[in-house]
Amino acid sequence: MITIKDNELPVSVCGLYTYGKPVPGLVNVQVCRKFSQSASSCYGKEAESVCEEFTRRADAHGCVSGVVKTKVFQLLRKGYEMSIEVQGKITEDGTGIEMTGTGSCGITSTMGKIRFDLLDYAYKPGIPLFGMVKLVDGTDAPLANETITITVGGNKYKGNYTTDEQGQSWFSIDTTSFTELSLEIRADHKPELNCYDSDWMTPSYEHSTRRVTRSYSLSKSFLKIEPKPETLTCGSSAEVQVHYILTPEAIGEQKKIVIYYLVMAKGQIVLAGTHDLTVNPGNAYGTFRLSFSVEAATAPVAQMLVYTTSPSGEVIASSEDFQVEMCLPSKVRLSFAPKESLPASNTHLHLHASPRSLCALRAVDKSVLLMKPENELSPSSVYRLLPLKESQGYSFRDYYLEEDNVNPCVSLDNLSLNGFLYIPISSDGEGDAYNILKELGLKVFTSSKIHKPELCEHYPEHMMERSYSVSTMNLHGELAYDMAEDMVDGNPMETVRKYFPETWIWDIVSVNSEGKADLEVTIPDTITEWKANAFCTSADTGFGLSPTASLRAFQPFFVELTMPYSVVRGESFTLKATVFNYLPACIRVSVSLAESTDFLAVPVGKQEESYCICVNERKTAAWAVTPRSLGQVEFSVTTEALQNQQPCGNHIVESPEKGRKDTVIRQLLVEPEGTEVETTYNSLLCASDESVSETVSLVLPETVVEGSARAYFSVLGDIMGTAMQNLHQLLQMPFGCGEQNMVLFAPNIYVLDYLNRTAQLSCTQHLRPGLSEQDSAAE
């Protein structure tokens, strides 16, 4: 996101392999801003958008970065879309493979935005009003060391606050002098510009306003839980400060007040207790502290309630929500040892969880998660599955469970005094103890006073019906390689790689009584980074999820093949073999394609005996290949670092003592020419004590493509075997008269008989109403 006053737009396009190395090649970058109304296609692409374009070679990190001047895009002018589109195209050296990535950058005329991140919905006279504001620019970047002005009720209060590094500012406002039923709180950064032009954009500075209402108390006594702006961390103890004002009307001569508190999470009460508060007779005010343990049981939102009951029966209460880290009850850790290793080598996967847990393990290629990152399992994705995250209101499914107020309404008359007519003020709009309990979804059985008085309908201009509106809630390092060590029994060290899965590990593992499991696994042949995680269930601790563990499978010298997934027999394609050198010195290599009778291969270009490859470089060899056989055809390409002292330009070649080899074997699907035709033969054999056989005649047409004929068979011991899943859904509800249901009777009878014989009959929801319907039709 950029603002209309930005003069420059930084652009960066990068290409990386899944094993973390940069992609060398030519990068083309195109930056465009489209017109809001495109002209006719007769005028070409220039009538669609304004563009800047540049092409450069990728640097050592596989990136091309630049700064585009925004003047050409006319950010202050109207008539354009409020976004800039960026397209980057990387053409890989050697293979010519092109990869394209796109991105967009929004344009905003908003230079500053203020929002209330935390603010009480009601104020309690005499207790500070707490809140937090956040200031960001048009790109949502925080603005630090800026002054924000907060005003309450026009001129009731005005104060300046300075933002921190996160653009936030915490404030508390003295409410002793506030008496209004409702107050507006406004936060300003800079004044708005009073400018307008139909062709030009005007920078704007947004302000934020909120309304707070006065809390009701018959004795003017209040409790207030001080909010916390930060997210509570699991495993810690949260200290909560509670403010109180207790008047003589509420406590009388009491010196010891019992404060009750409870903590709710996921719609359940997880903690309850009391606190003894010692006060002096008369007006008592001050603060006290409560604490509770932060754990998975209190996540993701801990709802706290504190209350006390006065001798007169008045309930004085306060509630507050605290955001809690999304942690899980069972702690699971997963790690590889070592974290980097060679393909096809062995490694250990260490799993730590609660004793005797049952764990599901998964390890996939990083490229899988790059394509669909939303498939990654995380605590937030688990918590999104919860049917209830926090309780609020008395709405349950389609029912509204609030009872009518049984307390009689108060009837007051207008008062005439000294020629002035005084009309009673309604307390409607003020929050009471009942509203606090209702917001938490708590149903209360009590004879105490939790409701504020309500005026009778005698004063219609002030009387409002009980509100039944419900707030909508969602319930629901690089490896060090020594070239001198690359030998095995005096022979060149050779790796043969032919196993390239996308999913490496998919298994269920039991943890021992010590809470440990150690698996020795073999790394596949793919040069990539593997991402592994595990989730576990335990009868004692419940569900747990491990952070993602990474294993980098890498070797400093290897060959990769570029080829299609499938071709038609007789069709030629180019097979490219790219040799990568991440060794600390230049080397000379040979590249060869193993001969086979299944294909014909001809080198493309000049064939050389050896190639020179320096540090972090690559070389590509290519062959024009024409397959001769059908099915899976195997291609084997080998590259070897040679003991050759011929220099690479100005660089000295350091040859391994015994060389190094890497062989890659990949398969290509060769399909027959022509059109595929499939014929199916079905037969039913009745089993007996003796073997049963049947002869099937397979007659091929005269025009069949040579070598393409194939046959396969399958045997099912159950004629309904192919319809095993959701078989009960074949049962249909009979409706209407008997003639309309005749066609439904036969399949229903057969399906019911099958379900009954296989002990799967559990659905009879259609039988009784269906029979009742038929009986009524017969009558």
UniProtKB/TrEMBL annotation:
PROSITE patterns linked to this entry: ALPHA_2_MACROGLOBULIN
Molecular-function GO term, any one: serine-type endopeptidase inhibitor activity
GO cellular component: extracellular space
Signal peptide as annotated in the record: none
Localisation: Secreted
Coiled-coil stretches noted in the UniProt entry, renumbered to this chain: none
Domain Alpha-2-macroglobulin per the UniProt entry, residue ranges: 503-593
Alpha-2-macroglobulin bait region domain ranges (all copies): 223-371
Keywords per UniProt: Disulfide bond, Protease inhibitor, Secreted, Serine protease inhibitor, Thioester bond
Family: Belongs to the protease inhibitor I39 (alpha-2-macroglobulin) family.
Protein name per UniProt: Alpha-2-macroglobulin-like
